[in-house]
């Protein structure tokens, strides 16, 4: 065959006069008065190939048989296009190749959708024919971006003397955390490996080993019910360091983000990142991953409305709840229907109703205003900076609900009022997360992050009195309303670790049984250490300007964890199960009634 | 705490006079006349810290409590050592740090073995305490080397415009090939994912997608009975290209190896690599992964001994076997016992006996000589270049046995006679492998590589008459007797693929059922493509000068696929199995009788 000498998209006017061979796919073919024009596509772009019977009757005849997505090789001369056929929309639009020889390398059936950007087709069809979907330039660019992003991470971490270490995929099931994927052992009947939810324990052991700076772009697995932005397997840039303070680590990670955004997209990210405590983030934005590209801060109004004639406010506060308000600047002009439509939106986040006030002609208007005193109105006006044209939205409930409702209303208003600059990348650290939270089902505290997260030094005294009030040296990296990474400084002193397990309700024996090998390791000289993990899929999604995580993954799975292209998972031969000493509990009937999507 | 300003092993005489803070582990502590000397170790090396009560009584008192493997922070001044305490064996042996402040960051129990190189302890103890084993400098250097090797691969492939693409770990079980690890699906009862034996199908699909140049440093899984140099999970550098000829690809891969060896170890690898056909490799060296650092080529002597008075030679040839000989240069002086000891060695590879001839004083000597004619002896002498002091070893059997026996005798002689230069790295390509081999059990041909390997163009006509004679465009990269990589050009034309499946005894329906999604993909414009995969574990082993694959892996498994540190695999909660719709077929009794190693 004729092997390519050049890439289609890389030829320029400099190549005029050269004889070149190109290989690629027929993007489209046109016949203009007996002359054939083929747009030839490879990974680099498109080049117009011209088949004029006057150059070669044979080549013209063969080209005439080529159809869309045929794979061809052409040899010819690079020439300047005629003035009238110049295509300013194409990087290679000023030149073309006059073909003297063509070889059809492979044929193609008509594809089920066009191989071009901005197609409007069902995603499941794209996933079934992923190998064709990935031919589309936007998908190629996203995967290229992902490859570049991985390289940017590696280059930076290498320059900071991080070692890449691979940790096992066939590892041990641990009872805390999310649901594990399990792998039956053939050699050890009745025993199972688990796929890692993260390399957490191994990276801490590498610090015990004295590796000091470790990273890995690691595949992680969680068998959870999938949301649109979750995948059963996902990729995290996993980082752990010894002998660094929290601030040294966070500073280094900021530089890493700057390098990533600069080298992949030429974007200048501003540093230092804003640092918000968890409490501040929740109080101001109703979220631990606030979108900071716009203001609209939430205000606490408990003190103002605790004796309000609006009975629901007063009673919520009396029962230990809170009342907070959001001034939706400029939304006071919305129609009654538009305002009423906010209630079902708020209900999705647990709101039982949605109280509101319009500010018009200097007056507060709305159903609840008549129950309010003059003083109340004046105080609210001041607290919220309420002006003509504003819409004040209230949430009164348990703290958690109020955060969720107002946090999401804030995002809705921000989007609807065009307060968000799509070109802006606003990073922040959310720090000082709670160490533990109370699990009503288990009737005990559970670790918010994991049981190896270090408490703040100044909160250590609370272990014995009020663990629920303790804060952790844990931090999340937040970007434009997404959590793109997170981590913590880890406990490295035996006595602190013991107190932590006691606070979580573990007996020393239970702790040993569940985390024995790590606890043992901790006794042999563990350095102070801490780390971060970044979600590569999500970062690439944000870099690509997409909102669909599946667009960033070459072969993703659906919400039911199915690969539509290979049809995995599937049934396997009985012999395979017998070798693994397992049997399925599924009868054929039972199975058939199971939904498949 | 006092965070490190410098790394222990990176301080030089240039730092004399500076105040530095170091963090690390106590390698050893000596008390010389009331002055304490601590060898402080971090990833970079060792620095001597001196605690003289005259500098700081407090620091001296604290240092006195430190024991081996304690984690400490010290601050002090870099000074030149006294003449008599200079240690020329240590890169930092001319300087020391006069400590004025010390902080014990963590204590350590006495480790189960010394944290130093060349320890003679049971490997299972090292694996159980892998986090301590990895503290030893030689293990740190090997993991560092592995990290560097991965980077060398990536940098080269990046410079050649390869894209890194991640392919799924949760994928589909396919019936051909080695045994799969399976993962039961919770969402789809009775169905299973399989862990990939390699990304083979996905990388070919990426070529269908037009990615042109793909790579991935990919984890692969094979549930096989493990030998010393196999692991249930291993890492391969997986590469696939479109629109390259075989020779273009092999040339590029040679440059890749040159880059790898140069940047990781400063070794200059000679190119072009020797290219041997499979037939040549087997005939000359009795192996498809010959060690080419020495000669000792095997000679066919069938024509000479076919009518020999040595009955076993004549009868083997009559029954379709072969007789080959190896001239073990210089081994003619071995004692009778040394020669006799070769027989049980040969028997391991299937030899029923081992005929031999010593050449002494111009004469052939040995039990079989008396059955040979003068002409036979003269012909053997010439064919084998036999001279005084030589030992000629014969193997007469089926071809496969003869290759194995003489190939391994050749290696034994090469090692014993010191013919092998340990510092030499001799690469070769073994090409033109057989396309298929006959499987006596299945009574059909099976693919030697896999069913998508392209046959040599000139052998295509044999599909209908004698597939067993067909050669494939498959190639292995061989280094010093190890296969370090391999690959092939792939079939990309539908008609060739159909003939291949027919040759393997598949009906078109069976082919569709087993490889449907790939066959379908092949209909939509598949480019000519081919690739390679390198074994990273094995390459790092060779770069590190080791012979144990486990030394190159941070957390390896034993021969029974157990992780001795975490104790994986292990039993899991019944609830987990129920969620996965499986049960184990193991009764407690049954399980207990199962050997655990």
From TrEMBL, chains A, B:
Location(s), subcellular: Cytoplasm
**Matches recorded under SUPFAM superfamilies:** Class II aaRS and biotin synthetases (SSF55681), GAD domain-like (SSF55261), Nucleic acid-binding proteins (SSF50249)
Q: What's the superkingdom here?
A: Bacteria
Residue positions annotated to bind L-aspartate are: 176, 222, 449, 490
- Keyword Nucleotide-binding part of the UniProt annotation: yes
In alphabetical order, the GO MF annotations are:
aspartate-tRNA ligase activity; ATP binding; catalytic activity, acting on a protein; nucleic acid binding; transferase activity
Would you kindly state one Gene Ontology biological process term found in this protein's UniProt entry? aspartyl-tRNA aminoacylation
Sites where the protein binds ATP:
222-224, 231, 483, 535-538
Looking at the record, the residues that make up the Aminoacyl-transfer RNA synthetases class-II family profile domain are 143-556
Question: What InterPro entries does the annotation carry?
Answer: Aa-tRNA-synt_II, aa-tRNA-synth_II, aa-tRNA-synth_II/BPL/LPL, Asp-tRNA-ligase_1, Asp-tRNA-ligase_1_N, Asp/Asn-tRNA-synth_IIb, AspRS_core, GAD-like_sf
Q: What is its EC number?
A: 6.1.1.12
Q: For this protein, what reaction is catalysed? A: tRNA(Asp) + L-aspartate + ATP = L-aspartyl-tRNA(Asp) + AMP + diphosphate
Q: Glycoprotein as a keyword?
A: no
Membrane-traversing stretches: none
The annotated region (Aspartate) lies at 200-203
> Could you tell me the keywords of this UniProt record?
Aminoacyl-tRNA synthetase, ATP-binding, Cytoplasm, Ligase, Nucleotide-binding, Protein biosynthesis
Q: Which GO terms describe its cellular component?
A: cytoplasm
Provide the primary localization. cytoplasm
Which PANTHER family does UniProt cross-reference here? ASPARTATE--TRNA LIGASE, MITOCHONDRIAL (PTHR22594:SF5), ASPARTYL/LYSYL-TRNA SYNTHETASE (PTHR22594)
Subunit details: Homodimer.
Q: Which family does the record assign?
A: Belongs to the class-II aminoacyl-tRNA synthetase family. Type 1 subfamily.
Q: What does this protein do?
A: Catalyzes the attachment of L-aspartate to tRNA(Asp) in a two-step reaction: L-aspartate is first activated by ATP to form Asp-AMP and then transferred to the acceptor end of tRNA(Asp).
> What protein am I looking at?
Aspartate--tRNA ligase
Q: Which organism is it from?
A: Paenibacillus aquistagni
